[in-house]
UniProtKB/TrEMBL annotation:
One of its GO terms (molecular function) is iron-sulfur cluster binding. Its cofactor is [4Fe-4S] cluster. SUPFAM superfamilies: Radical SAM enzymes, RuvA domain 2-like. It comes from the Bacteria. InterPro entries: Aldolase_TIM, DNA_rSAM_put, Elp3/MiaA/NifB-like_rSAM, Endo/Exo/Phosphatase_dom_1, rSAM, rSAM_sf, RuvA_2-like. NCBIfam families: rSAM_link_UDG (TIGR03916). Keywords: Iron, Iron-sulfur, Metal-binding, S-adenosyl-L-methionine. Residues 59-286 form the Elp3/MiaA/NifB-like radical SAM core domain. The keyword Metal-binding applies. This is Elp3/MiaA/NifB-like radical SAM core domain-containing protein.
Length: 413
């Protein structure tokens, strides 16, 4: 590996990082270098594959410190028994790359993960050194996200939180049996123990900040995690329940879902093909329902198919829930409370807030609601407006079939 050029290492280790989806972020501390003393800045909106308030797409240098690993997780392309080409950066090389890319206006921050070399503590020390050097030696004020190692010493995790904007620990798989089968060297209890420790540190530092103005911040953008979907037998119902549990117990900022992707020279215990990408999309929609629309995990799980335990692929989970709870609809757009309007298929949070603001001044008609959404077709069976009451439509036995979009061939031009 020492013979590889920095460019070749970057090619290998940037490609190896593509399987980690949990690199988007929001809510970090706003910093800039307009005082001329440091380098870099952050925005309080999204990072990497998200958009700032002014419309910019903010990007991160997303790399691994190394793709060598002492673990042999079946689903990981960088596992010990894999025959992929290995490479490794030094901490200094990552620092220099980050600063060089930032000065060329390629990136606005760093997402750093790593395979485990020598030991968990040694690897975590190298990652912390990258963040420390950027912050203290170069006064870097851009965004830093570190993928931490749950087996590492708690003091190393604390130091990581003092330098990084966000920390994340992957739970990898939604169930303990799946983790034992596909990643026997990892322990779900240790993973959640590290999450609990980080939450405790965030709470302690938050209390200190309220009492002392100059108390240090600890991972101001919070912590996140990622689950692989489709590598084991866990259904969507189990994934939804696990995500809800993680949000409640550890106050995670985000749970990311990554559809299992077949890798070169796969283990015999892995499925032969990847799950539909739409399944990953439906899980993200269910996640939004719990975080922004007031649904409990049990309610979202009720939208899954009774036999397979998975969310339907041809309709979104919010519509699936509404079709299974027809007695709750239609709701009056001019009188219903906000929590019920949020459950109407096709109405988003912004649309509901505009409805609440508008109906203070006049009674809303169906055409008024249509201006706030992309399609009124999905809304009509579930809404009552000043000029609309779905008497026959709401009671149709074949309503589900009417609202399912027929398959259509995509066109290139």
């Amino acid at each position: 590996m020492s013979a590889l050029s920095t460019r070749k290492k970057l090619e290998i280790l940037a490609d190896a990082a593509k399987y980690d989806a949990s690199c988007a972020s929001s809510g970090t501390t706003k910093r800039d270098s307009r005082d001329g003393k440091g380098i870099g800045s952050t925005e309080g909106m999204g990072i990497c594959h998200a958009y700032a308030p002014d419309g910019r797409c903010i990007s991160l240098l997303k790399i691994l410190l190394t793709n060598s690993c002492i673990f042999d997780c079946h689903y990981c392309i960088n596992r010990r028994s894999s025959d992929v080409r290995r490479a490794r950066f030094t901490a200094r090389e990552v620092v220099d790359l980050t600063l060089s890319f930032y000065r060329r206006n390629y990136i606005e921050g760093l997402f750093l993960s790593s395979g485990i070399i020598r030991s968990s503590d040694y690897t975590m020390e190298q990652m912390v050194e990258v963040a420390r050097s950027l912050r203290e030696d170069h006064d870097f004020r851009g965004y830093i996200h570190l993928k931490t190692i749950p087996d590492a010493d708690p003091e190393l995790l604390r130091q990581a939180g003092l330098h990084a904007d966000r920390l994340s620990i992957n739970v990898e798989l939604p169930t303990e049996p799946g983790l034992k089968r596909l990643a026997p060297e990892k322990d779900g209890r240790r993973i959640e123990g590290a999450m609990a420790q980080m939450r405790s540190q965030m709470d302690d530092m938050g209390d200190a900040r309220r009492k002392y103005r100059h108390a240090p911040r600890f991972a101001p953008a919070g912590q996140s995690t990622q689950m692989i979907v489709g590598a084991d037998a866990a259904d969507d119902r189990a994934i939804i329940q696990r995500a809800s549990s993680l949000y409640d117990r550890h106050r995670l900022r985000r749970v990311y879902y990554s559809a299992f992707s077949p890798i070169p020279s796969p283990s015999s215990v892995l499925p032969l093909k990847r799950p539909p990408l739409m399944r990953e999309h439906r899980l993200y929609q269910s996640d939004w329902m719990m975080r922004f629309y007031g649904y409990s995990a049990a309610e979202v799980a009720a939208a899954t198919d009774r036999d397979s335990g998975c969310l339907p692929l041809d309709i979104d989970p919010k519509l699936a829930w509404a079709l299974q709870h027809r007695a709750s609809f239609p709701v009056d757009v001019n009188h219903a409370p906000r929590e019920m309007l949020l459950r109407v298929p096709g109405l988003g949070v912004k649309a509901v807030d505009r409805i609440l603001a508008s109906r203070r001044h006049r009674r809303l008609r169906l055409e008024d609601v249509a201006r706030l959404t992309t399609s009124i077709v999905k809304l009509r069976p579930f809404l009552i407006a000043a000029d609309w009451r779905p008497v026959q439509l709401a009671d149709r036995v074949d309503l589900s079939a009417q609202l399912r979009r027929p398959a259509a061939q995509l066109e290139l031009f």
